[in-house]
Specification:
Layout lengths: L7 H6 L6 E3 L4 E4 L5 E2 L6 E2 L2 H11 L10 E2 L15 E2 L1 E3 L3 E5 L6 H6 L11 E8 L4 E2 L5 E4 L5 E6 L2 E4 L5 E2 L3 H5 L11 E6 L8 E5 L4 E3 H4 L30 E4 L7 E8 L7 H8 L1 H7 L5 H7 L4 H4 L4 H14 L7 H9 L5 E3 L7 E5 L2 H4 L5 H4 E20 L31 E15 L1 H8 L2 H21 L8 H17 L10 E7 L8 E9 L16 H10 L9 H4 L53
Parallel strand pairs: 5-23
Antiparallel strand pairs: 1-2, 2-7, 3-6, 4-5, 8-9, 8-12, 9-15, 10-11, 11-12, 13-14, 13-18, 15-16, 16-17, 19-22, 20-21, 21-22, 22-23, 23-25, 24-25
Helix pairs in contact: 6-10, 16-17
Length: about 625
Amino acid sequence: MADVTQSFSQLLLTYGPGAMIDLPDQAVIVSGLQGWDSGANVKPISEGRLVKLLKEQLGTKLSASFMGLRQPPAFDEDKRGDRAPGVEVLIFPTWFTVDVGGTTSSDDNSQSGTPAMTVAQIEKRRRMVEFTDLSVTSGGKLSYKGDGGKRAEVNPIRFVAACTKGHLQDIDWRWLVHRIGDRSCRKPMYWVERGVSSDPSDISVRCTCGSSLTMGDLYKPKFIGGCQCKSPWLQPQHLPGETCSNDLRLLPRSATNTYFAQTVTVISLTKTDDRARQAISEHRPTIDSIRALPNFIDILRSLPQTKDAFKDFTDAEILRALDEETGESDQTSANPRIAEFDILASGARVIGHDGPTSHLFAETLPPEQLGLTEPWSSFLKSVVQVHRLREVTCLYGFTRLEPPPTAAESELDEIQLAVDGADLSRSVDWLPAIEQFGEGIFLHVDPEFIKKWLIKPEVIDRAQVLKEAERKEAERFGRPPNHLGIANWALHSLSHAMMSELSLECGYPLSSLKERIYSSGASQADRFGILIYTSTAGGQGTLGGLSGVTHRVGEILERAVKHLELCSNDPICAEHSPKNDHDDRHMHGAACHACLLVPETSCEARNTRLDRGLLIPTVVGTQYSLFA
């Protein structure tokens, strides 16, 4: 099989362990972490706060020898074959169809003297075969040698079975077809498609013994049977004694709900302005590997990757910074978002330091440079120009059929990771992660402005409507509700409006921008803010296009909110209510693709908790707007 390359972000978010891929010649499933081989080029990623969070939240899902985060295997042009680093893939599914010339057409019947068949009567028959019946051609393709001795190429079956916990398996076609017949039958089976509609009722599986079923049958609840806890991307695929109480459901391999990655993202921080401690944090893996040596500081000064970073510090400064850094590690908040907010909203004129290896460098702009007018001068407590930031994203599991809740859906001071997804390996000794660098704009929202808005009677009434909407949405997915508060809805809506306006100004497309919403609950310390940023694996995310417009944040916000007054889908958009029982858009107020929804890559909450009526009065005259 020829090598196929994917970007690191594709591996983590779309094609991680357990994901199904259609390659040019075969349909495969990505191996678990046991098949991710970096060879001698293992690159650890240092992010202590994220590792601490993963250990606390995942617990026994991580092995006792968990070593932290690593970059996925990188393609190496100089190494080929068994020596090449890469990610293994396995053949899946193991049922295939092969053309046997079984199409009945109207032309065939016309030549035989019978009336022409209607389109609905046209049938195409394909022989169903298993992987064990196939052979591999010299070109590396799978083929089937029929009774006539002629080889024919095969195509993988389009349907498999899965459960909501991520388990996956081939459908037992022979057992289902003969569920009420002779289950010992081993006669040939055929995939039969009638007409051209591809409707499930027009697709059937038939055995030459006369037994059959239609695809419509497979959509019936409990028809396929109970989950057998199979995980074809892991070794072994099934553990003795492993059970699952879920029912299997039909899953087309190309459906959008075949894979939902469970990831967590943090923004790397500099703990203080102490450059020695910052340098230590940036080179932590190297320091840890040589710390036990008696002359480790001499080695540190001689290594190519560290000698420039520590040349300006004395031995005593390095040792003192190491001791201080270790002493503070346990005091860092377990919630990365609180630590991010606290340092960005600290009001310090300079945050971090400027340098090629810096993880964070930002400046709090003086009010006179911003020239803010009302209401923005009261709404914003400070504005931070983030010249450089580092984003680390880690994959720790996945689900199928239904998306898991994201970390952004938990309260600011009680971050919760969804831990009921599928495993990436039988023994998780490390987790794949990527680091990306970028720039951004941080808005520190004045808590007093939010508090004055929250006590208005109209806002209190609207908050109850949104709380009920969150309850209905949670009920739909069978999980407890997370009530994040009306302030979160408002700031999230403002973030989307601001990203749409920024994409017209900064040179980055909307799909390249990202957000982080900081909004505390009623009983929490006051933290309200928005971080709009961009990040890429290379240096393209730090070219200054986004942070360069920070000085114009007032006019950008003004235009962003102004554009929300009218939507091209009004009045339908403005009249939509989260408590509407006639659709499942409980997490949307006045919001649609024409006004507030953004690309999925930009939103941290899957385009939920959005309502432009919370920001500005719409055509229906909302009375609870933040900027009325």
